[in-house]
Design brief:
Helix content is 35%, strand content 24%. With 164 residues, the chain is of the alpha+beta class. It has a single domain, classed as Yope Regulator, Chain: A (2-Layer Sandwich), CATH 3.30.1460. The strands form two sheets. It has a six-stranded antiparallel β-sheet. The protein has a two-stranded antiparallel sheet with strand order 5-6.
């Protein structure tokens, strides 16, 4: 089954992280540029986005790449719906056992990524690579990230009720 969901970058999360000082400028020695070149070699299109890089691909999950103090973080967010708590009119993503069961299953099968529901209802997939850029290590990371994305695609039928 072909998995196609419009990826929505989570600007709110980015702004919150930028405000926390978690981001730094590109690594000395051209690490960010080498990562972008590597991604472009893999068929991704890269464009600057705030202090990170917006990364898209015609057939793979798009993501935001953000340099961290000691590495990089990649993150994709998918528009979701907030579940309604039965005991109040306040929206919550923590009150639905089925929703949490899906995330637990995804996290158990993931290699490098972590899946979670944002407070706004978005489904977020996030992974980090620590240390300086190394071609072989980054290749291995990207293969695992893409495999985790395929795992997400295989779970789409279970996620559909929670995504916009």
């Amino acid at each position: 089954m072909h998995f196609q969901v419009q990826v929505k970058m989570s600007v709110l999360l980015i702004v919150l992280l930028l405000g926390s000082g978690a981001f730094v400028h590109a690594e000395e020695g051209g690490g960010r540029e080498r990562i972008v070149e590597h991604l472009e070699f893999l068929g991704y299109q890269c464009e600057p986005f705030h202090q990170g890089v917006k990364v898209t691909h015609p057939s793979k999950i798009g993501f935001l790449l953000v340099p961290l103090k000691d590495g990089i973080m990649v993150q994709a967010a998918f528009a979701g719906i907030e579940s309604q708590s039965q005991s109040s009119s306040v929206s919550s993503t923590d009150d639905d056992p089925s929703r949490l069961s899906i995330i637990n299953s995804l996290n158990q099968r993931a290699s490098v990524s972590r899946f979670f529901w944002a407070e706004t209802g978005e489904l977020v997939i996030r992974a980090s690579v620590l240390g300086a850029y190394d071609k072989r290590r980054f290749s291995t990371f990207m293969q695992a990230w893409e495999k985790d994305g395929q795992t997400l695609g295989q779970s789409y039928q279970h996620l559909r009720p929670y995504l916009k």
